[in-house]
């Protein structure tokens, strides 16, 4: 695997150019809309099997299933169907959360030996992202992963015909996005890095509620907050096209209605099914535009302090909205969805009410909106202050920051982190 530091988005020349132009300078350049074909509901897996049978010659029927030790339990449901079409398969069940580079070397080696035509990811964001990167490196080992910019063509799928994603959480949206997050363990402390190319968008996403119905409450809540951050954060970045706006707005409505139900009553399959769709819609929303800076703040904070991705980005969602409101009023579109009446109110009062309503929703799921209230894990203030420069640096050097509609600097990042300790509203 060819690998150099830094990533393209950490290159000073690109950062300087984007900072001087402002994130808005590149709007309109990337307005494509990519998606997997989505097979949902009880017949989704059968649909997948029939499709593979119809389109793959018998000698090409080899699938590598990638999962982790928890999601391995779901593989039988898939392999039983693959056997009906005489599809040979192998299972790699060792993906660890927030995939380190060295793991990809293992899965690529497996591909070189087994030569699958289909990669099937069964898992949450880490498993799906590991599978995307496996395909990338297997197909193009000579390509520098970290310098792959989101525009242009790489030429994947000369070896793998189909990339299939079967999510087992409802939040990441990775089943339909062009992004994959990995951990660069060569840095100290390790840093999350993003790879973005439309060629890793899965070909088929299967949304079957059976794969998400056993999620424990914490995972339901945290991954659901990830979907909330995707849709709200991306909506207020002002990057949207009407396609993207439609996905984000509907996702937010669904999340508000169904996430509390799925969290409190895990056996509520209607809520589970709606959350599954909402997460995919939010994935189409942010994946075809850009996430909010809640994701650059959350990537850095989550990695440095060991906090779940969804909980981290959920915590920073109010700050992401607050920060962008100097350059856009799009937050006002979200007021009715959060039950906030617009008529007859001053803008400042309206924003306060909206912000409170957003925070109340997050609190209703037993999640925090400031660092000092975090319980899993508890972070002490001294340690937090000690690491502010590091988290601000990692957050600024995150791909998402580069595209912020409001220009962002390392100093601004540090200040947002300072304010996030006890939930101070953004006043700069
Ligand atoms: Fe996310």
Write the layout of secondary structure elements.
Blueprint: H1 12-21, E1 37-40, H2 44-55, E2 62-66, H3 75-84, E3 88-92, H4 101-114, E4 118-123, H5 125-139, E5 162-167, E6 179-184, E7 191-196, E8 204-207, H6 217-235, H7 242-264, H8 269-287, H9 294-305, H10 309-324, H11 331-334, H12 347-364, H13 381-386, H14 388-396, H15 399-402, H16 410-420
Parallel strand pairs: 1-8, 2-3, 2-4, 4-5, 5-8
Antiparallel strand pairs: 6-7
Helix pairs in contact: 4-5, 6-7, 6-8, 6-10, 7-8, 9-10, 9-14, 10-12, 14-16
Bound molecules: fe (ii) ion.
The tally of structural domains comes to 2
- Remind me, CATH topology of the largest domain? Dehydroquinate synthase-like, alpha domain
The counted number of beta strands is 8
In whole angstroms, the N-to-C terminal distance is 43 Å
What percentage of amino acids are in beta strands?
A: 5-15%
Number of helices: 16
CATH uppermost class of the largest domain: Mainly Alpha
Helix-strand string = HEHEHEHEHEEEEHHHHHHHHHHH
> Uncertain runs with pLDDT below 50, 5 residues or more?
none
In one word, what is the shape? globular
Which bin fits the share of residues in helices? 40-55%
Ligand identities? fe (ii) ion
CATH architecture name of the largest domain: Up-down Bundle
Strand line-up in the sheet with most strands? 1-8-5-4-2-3
- Rg from Cα: 21 Å
Q: What structural class do helix, strand and pairing data support?
A: alpha/beta
Largest sheet: 6 strands, parallel
